[in-house]
Amino acid sequence: MKSLEKQFKEVYEANYAKVNRLCLGYTNGDAMLSKDLTQDVFIKVWQHLDSFRNESNITTWIYRIAVNTCLLELRKKKPVRLSNHLNHIEASTENQNNDKELEFNKLYHCIGRLKPENKSIILLELEGVPQKEIAEITGLSHETIRVRIYRIKKELTKCVRK
Amino acid sequence: MTTFEDLKSQWKNQPQQDIPNDGSESILKKLSGIKRKQIITNVILGATVLILIVFFTYIKAYNNGLISFALSLMIGSLLIRIGIEYFSIKKLKAIDVTLSASVFSKNMVSYYKKRIRIHYIATPIIILAYCIGFVLMLPSFEKHLSSGFYTYIVFSSIIILVVMVLFIGKQIKKELSILKEISN
């Protein structure tokens, strides 16, 4: 029988990047803060792993923990405000790397302006999570998710184009 | 012109963060550290209660009605405060993080509403009870202690009270802002 530690290691390695990307979306791209949050998420994953019943996909289950942890922890630790950081980059941007960085920061900035619930929905959509699973993670109906995604997509695209 | 699909592919293609070496092992180590801290906290709380009870019996407070009442007020209010914090932390930890975000949010809102009620009702009563106990003890302090030490106790207690009220005020402000954000 596979030990719990071994199962945790596999789950950790298979999901680390996904969780970290999601946390980056919640922290306006703050790498240090998102690393801390990712660690908090996996601490909770370990604490509840023995109660995971295989009723849903393990990744969906982890996303549920990640969304709840990020929303809660970010109320305690506020991420850096992007506006100042963004102005600084805008002023000094010359090369391609900075352009790419600026694009990402703009995307993070636009995501950061969304309401917490909408932020979770669009981050999961960006991750390519099916809408049915997003509904399961957020606890909203499939229909609500479909309508919300349509609206947020428009709002986000408009904001990035500015 | 940027479309949402462009943003999606941009999102997926962002530079990957490396998985930390021995990441899962370091999490397990961190967890045993957290458990150790919890044990230390419980030992400290237990020791505080024990010291207070020993002090109470050592000075034979039960022989003097007023001192006994004053000390009971002080010790009781401290114990109630510690108890409230202990059970609050336990309750917060018991909120299931594996539930859907909307159910989790509802549970968090109800937790913080209870916390605010504690702050507005129980905390002022506790502080008042502690202060009454302290004021009632002052004649006894004055009688048994040197005037220098008595003055020191009076002034330091005022400073401690101000710091405590400021600290609790900050905590209330923080929890109110958390509640406001979750309720949105």
How would you portray this structure in words?
The complex is a heterodimer of chains A (162) and B (184). Chain A has helices spanning 4-26, 31-48, 58-76, 82-92, 96-112, 116-126, 131-138, 142-161. With 162 residues, chain A is an all-alpha fold. In chain A, helix 1 packs across helix 3 (58-76), helix 3 (58-76) crosses helix 7 (131-138) and helix 7 crosses helix 8 (142-161). The radius of gyration of chain A is 17 Å and the shape is globular. With 184 residues, chain B is mainly α. Chain B has a domain at 65-183. Helices cover 85% and strands 0% of the residues of chain B. Chain B has helices at residues 4-12, 23-58, 65-94, 101-144, 147-183. The longest helix of chain B is centred in the middle third of the chain and has 44 residues, at 101-144.
- Work out the strand percent of chain B: under 5%
Q: Give the largest interface pair and sizes.
A: A-B, 53 and 36 residues
The amount of helix of chain B comes to over 70%
Instruction: Point out poorly predicted stretches of chain B.
Output: none
Cα-atom radius of gyration of chain A: 17 Å
The CATH topology of the domain at 1-80 in chain A corresponds to Rna Polymerase Sigma Factor, Chain: A
Structural class of chain B: mainly alpha
Q: Quick one: CATH superfamily of the domain at 1-80 in chain A? A: RNA polymerase sigma factor, region 2, helix turn helix motif
Indicate the radius of gyration of chain B in whole angstroms.
25 Å
- What letter string, H or E per element, gives the SSE order of chain A? HHHHHHHH
